[in-house]
Write a structure and sequence with these properties.
512 residues, alpha+beta, four-stranded mixed sheet, 22 helices, globular, disordered C terminus
């Protein structure tokens, strides 16, 4: 069956003339010629992006999701194709209620009517991985019940294995295969889809985001009912709101649309720079608005996490961009280690300047942060930058946030909203508070290490003493050893200094 599925996939790709995407190695040009003869009846009316979208839709929901993910990799694929793939809709017919009963019974050991006071048998939403039903608990609370599709894990794993095989074949036969790393793209998709296949992870993401916004001033996150959650079923508070795309309805409810747009940008940058944890699937279907104007978040299967290094990279680059300091942009890439150390800064700076300078001829309110990142990633790839998956997710989310914001308010100035977050973050990285915070975070590790330091220093000195005795016969080696001793002496002094610093930090911590 696996190979029949592979043959069917290849047939669909050829049916839509998708071999035109590939510049074959010389030895496979004959194959391309034969394909053009065999499939002479194929229509070429549609453009290449449309043909790719139609092929993915015909191959089924998993390939639709793959196309949706691919649409975010604008650093890899042409923009016209990315725009066309963004039209893909993850909508499939719902599975029957008898399957819902089986899954819930398998998860809880009892039927839905024993767990819920009421349960809507018709789903309110149905997608390729799961569907959602509304229900009421016996205590009267309204809930939304998310249920994985039957056998979806097995189906997805089979198709992912086939995608890996196709990617491997492309790397062997496509002249651009190694440069564009198709297997890496499939691995990224696999990571995303696997997260969506465990609803306990979905629930944990929801709970964490809710904790980050527990004041509920700008964003409402549904409560999770953990007693009713499993890998295949998730139960959370039912939310009541208006889809953010229904702008006229929002206006009738007297919601300030311009303020709503600004709040959306603020929520996003708060997630990024305050919490290092952001909702990475912020399309209109996952966002509603409460009657009082607060955002309501939904669907937590895809979330992104950022390290301090990631945040420093983003803030430093954005601030440098808007100062047109392209030298600092190039330097940030090299210092972060994401571009090889031997990269020519001047050459890299000029490459960045050539693609970004035209953007900054526009007014600030017309500049797209997301497209700026796309240009940066596209340029950086030419200098062998490994694009980090979390930054790809962030770039996709940023495009979604910008799209939502400017759909609400075409005059939205993202820079004006974002600048305070960027400047505050960068200033916090330089002050004494940041140093003390870092020391406080490292305190448990150093407290564990401090009692061992004298023994470690003694062993270090004994090791060097033994090495010195072995090399005494050779004068040249002795001179080298003396230099090493000097270096090791500095290390020992540094360790002693760190020990004193840790003790002072402990004292500061307990006094505070």
């Amino acid at each position: 069956m696996k190979y029949f599925r592979l043959i069917y996939i290849i047939y669909i790709l050829l049916k839509y003339r998708l071999e035109e995407f590939i510049t074959f190695n010389r030895q496979l040009n004959v194959f391309a010629f034969l394909v053009s003869i065999i499939f002479f009846f194929r229509s070429a009316k549609e453009n290449r992006g449309t043909r790719l979208r139609l092929a993915l839709e015909e191959l089924g929901p998993i390939f639709v999701k793959f196309g949706q993910m691919l649409s975010t990799r604008r650093d890899l694929i042409p923009l016209d194709i990315a725009d066309e793939l963004a039209k893909l809709q993850d909508q499939v017919p719902p599975f029957p209620y008898k399957n819902v009963e089986k899954i819930i019974t398998a998860s809880y050991g009892m039927s839905p009517d024993k767990i819920f006071k009421t349960f809507d048998q018709v789903p309110t939403a149905s997608a390729s991985v799961a569907q959602v039903h509304f229900a009421t608990l016996h205590d009267g609370k309204d809930v939304a019940v998310k249920i994985l599709r039957p056998n979806i894990k097995r189906v997805i794993n089979k198709d992912i294995n086939l995608l890996y095989l196709i990617a491997y074949m492309l790397e062997l036969t496509w002249s651009d295969g190694k440069r564009l790393r198709p297997r890496e793209v499939v691995a990224e998709f696999s990571r995303h889809i696997q997260c969506e296949l465990n609803l306990m992870l979905d629930a944990a993401n929801c709970s964490r985001l809710g904790e980050n916004f527990k004041d509920k001033k700008l964003l409402i996150v549904p409560d999770v009912y953990w007693d009713f959650c499993s890998e295949d079923v998730m139960v959370m508070e039912r939310m009541y709101g208006t889809p953010i795309s229904h702008i006229e309805t929002l206006r009738k409810k007297k919601i300030d649309i311009k303020q709503l747009a600004r709040n959306g940008v603020e929520i996003f940058f708060t997630q990024v720079f305050r919490d290092s944890f952001f909702h990475a699937d912020m399309h209109p279907g996952n966002i509603q608005v409460a009657d009082d104007g607060r955002y309501i978040a939904m669907d937590f299967g895809i979330m992104g996490s950022l390290s301090e290094n990631d945040k420093n990279y983003l803030a430093r680059n954005f601030l440098a961009f808007f100062k047109r300091d392209y030298h600092d942009v190039a330097l940030a890439h090299i210092e972060s280690g994401w571009v090889p150390k031997d990269t020519s800064i001047d050459e890299f700076e000029n490459a960045i300047r050539s693609v970004c300078e035209p953007i900054f001829n526009k007014p600030l309110k017309e500049i797209s942060f997301g497209r700026l990142l796309i240009r940066l990633f596209q340029t950086s790839r030419r200098f062998n930058m490994e694009i980090q998956p979390q930054l790809t997710m962030l770039q996709k989310t940023l495009l979604n946030v910008e799209g939502l914001g400017r759909n609400l308010d075409p005059d939205l100035d993202l820079w004006k909203t974002a600048a305070p977050f960027l400047k505050k973050y960068m200033s916090e990285q330089k002050g004494i508070k940041h140093i003390l915070k870092s020391l406080k975070n490292e305190l448990p590790h150093w407290l564990h290490l401090t009692p061992q330091l004298p023994r470690l220093i003694h062993e270090l000195l004994e090791q060097k003493k033994h090495e010195n005795a072995i090399h005494q016969e050779d004068i040249g080696r002795l001179l080298k050893t003396q230099k090493n001793q000097s270096r090791w002496f500095k290390i020992v002094i540094t360790l002693i200094g760190i020990t004193l610093l840790v003790n002072l930090t402990v004292l500061f911590y307990f006094v505070k």
